[in-house]
Amino acid sequence: MKTNIAKRIAFLSTYPPKECGLATFTEDLVNAIDENTETSSVQTCIMAMTKNEEYTDSRVAFHVNQEDRSSYKEAAAWANTHVDLVIIEHEYGIFGGTAGEYVIDFAKELQIPFIVTTHTVLLRPTSKQRSVLRELGKLSTKVVTMAESSIPVLKGSYDIAGRKIMFIPHGVPSMKMVSREQLKSYYPALKNKQIISSFGLISPAKGLEYGIQALAKVVKQYDDVIYLILGKTHPTVKEKMGEAYRQSLMDLAETLGVRDHVQFVDKYLTKEEVITYLQLSDMYLTPYLSAEQAVSGTLAYAMGYGRVIISTPYRYAQEMLGEGRGLLARFRDEDSLADCIRTVLGNPERKADMEIRTMAVGRTMTWENVASQYVELCLKTIDENRNSLTSDTQIPLVPLEKKMTFSFNKTSQVKGMKA
User: Fold this and answer.
1) Would 405 be classed as within a structural domain?
2) Residue 84, Cα to own-chain centre: how many angstroms?
3) Do the Cβ atoms of 96 and 411 come closer than 8 Å?
4) Judgement on whether residues 161 and 199 belong to the same structural domain of the protein
5) Structural domain includes residue 419
6) Taking burial as the number of CB atoms within 10 A of a residue's CB, which of 58, 187, 257, 297 is the most buried?
7) Same domain (yes/no): 275, 325
8) Residue 288 in contact with residue 206, Cβ under 8 Å?
9) Looking at the domain assignment, is residue 124 inside a domain?
């Protein structure tokens, strides 16, 4: 029997101030759920994966120490008595143990349903990577993928039952569109220029050197092109190699004689900054090196704002850029990228058509729409789980205004969940 009591949903994930795509994704999704008046039937909180992060957001209700295995079982004990359902935002790099295996301890201890959102579905995983995701899929109630192309992979390589798998797209912000030329006019160096942009945390896997090499070929014919490389170096990359990769990109631009055509913005961009740069761009470029990439949040954002996208043919790009919505270049091939850029610059009518096609799909991916799909899935999952339980097997939930009082080790913290 349905009631008006809000269902409590916890997200196990990284979270800001952690600077990573997964943290941003979770924050955007939770904000969209909380801000949507039609989803007031649920209440959200965060179980934040942490090393040394300090959290000030009141939605962070529990800290899970990434490398402390006991912390995962304590987290499950807390979830069992405080929430109705957990969504595990799964990425191999955020959980402890080999291939993130500690998250299995958490999943096995849960006595409430949980959903797994897969952010990386590898075509050629190691045996351990395969076993971790396979076990999560076996234990979960539902598995969400943000790429339809990942559905057969989850079924085949990871033995996850098809009835469990659901497609929900990556969300994109919904903000008022502003004239591209008007935005360019605010930046003297960009006024009357053709803008190519790439954004996100910078790492060698992004293949940005091929973008610079392609630019060097294009400017011989189109000298009004500017390439914006937006974002700070990925923290893991910076820890291992400092700013060597970024410096190599700057040196390459200098060597090729296009330093004046390449601008670096070395910072972790706010959502508003990302959207501004996207809206003033004529093309969005993702020259990634690996065909494995199942989802790209940056490409999803570019879709949401109707930009022409030029990309290497990784899985997500192939899925999103079909039916004339963008152009695919060969991997590690600056000539192929340059040909795509010239196609856009030399064919304004085709460019306009691609933008219309991209925008049509992008507008179905707003966070509001995505949040509604998650809420519907969560409520259905909770109701089905409760209907399958007898009254004497259900676990009583601790009221939201009360904190847990049992003992945790020093690496785990409990905070009151926002009512």
Assistant:
1) yes
2) 24
3) no
4) no
5) no
6) 297
7) yes
8) yes
9) yes
User: Is residue 50 domain-shared with residue 166, that is, in the same domain?
Assistant: yes
12 and 83 belong to one structural domain: yes
What's the predicted TM-score (pTM) here?
0.83
Residues 149, 55: Cα–Cα separation, whole Å: 35
Contact call for residues 227 and 261 (beta carbons, < 8 A): yes
295 within domain boundaries: yes
Q: Which residues contact 163 (CB under 8 A, 6 or more apart)?
A: none
> pLDDT truncated to tens, each residue of the chain (419 aa)?
344 578 999 999 999 998 888 999 999 999 999 987 555 689 999 999 998 778 888 999 999 999 999 999 999 999 999 999 999 999 998 999 999 999 999 999 999 999 999 999 999 999 999 999 999 999 999 999 999 999 999 999 999 999 999 999 999 987 777 889 999 999 999 999 999 999 999 999 999 999 999 999 999 999 999 999 999 998 889 989 999 999 999 999 999 999 999 999 999 888 889 999 999 999 999 999 988 877 888 999 999 999 999 999 999 999 999 898 999 999 999 999 999 999 999 999 999 999 999 999 998 999 999 999 999 999 999 998 877 654 444 445 555 443 332 223 333 333 333 33
Which domain does 58 fall in, by range? 7-171+366-414
Residue type at position 74 = E
| Count of structural domains within the chain | 2
Residue whose tokens read 């191999």: 92
In a shared domain, residues 98 and 228: no
Identify the CATH number of the domain in which residue 211 sits: 3.40.50.2000
CB 325 within 8 Å of CB 348: no
